[in-house]
Write a structure and sequence with these properties.
Layout: H1 7-15, H2 17-25, H3 36-54, H4 68-75, E1 80-90, E2 103-115, E3 118-125, H5 134-146, E4 152-159, E5 164-171, H6 175-195, H7 216-224
Helix pairs in contact: 1-2, 5-6
Amino acid sequence: MSVSMSFSKLNNFENCPKRFYYTYIDTGALPQVETEQMKRGTRVHNSLELYGRTGDAKHLTVESKKYKDIVDRILSANGDKYYEFSMAITKSKEICSWDSPNLWLRGIADVLIVDGNTAHCLDYKTGKPKNDSTQLQIFSLLTFAHFPEVEEVNTGYLWLAHDELSATTYLRHYLDSFWRSIEARIEKVYEAIETDTFPTRPTKLCGWCQAKEICPDAYEERRRR
């Protein structure tokens, strides 16, 4: 079975392989539920994307207008700007279409600024700040693949509600080592698929998992609390 990868899939697997199975392998097992938090995040992202593309404040909403200054700083920056920029590559690191049969890894940058040999790749976050640079690393790898002239990618999570930036810089000089790190993690996902081995990883968060009604370990975790 062929499964393309993304940060969300990798993160899902590493948090709980069984949840990954229910979500991406046995795709009919879970109902597709969009929480209010997810809906709000989508609305804010869409609004900021349209404002960034057009500079027209009519696209700002009651929810998103408080972040206008953040996008204005992006608009004033030097370089070519891309919003909701889709990047996809094959296993051999060649650019491909989003739905290519050879797709291996993909991601969407909320904001990508390319200024000569330097790029800035930003991801809007509407939740609480967390320390996990995996998504940023994947964004940097995809950016290097799509823009061969870029030698440095400055990545960051823009925590909108806090007006904070969690930044990490990646240099093309270390590209091979970055790839080895991500590929080793992705390989564990394919090993699980190959062997049909998806153990559960029960935690106190099981009560909020979409699979809580069909996963026996989630039930046991809730029963112990």
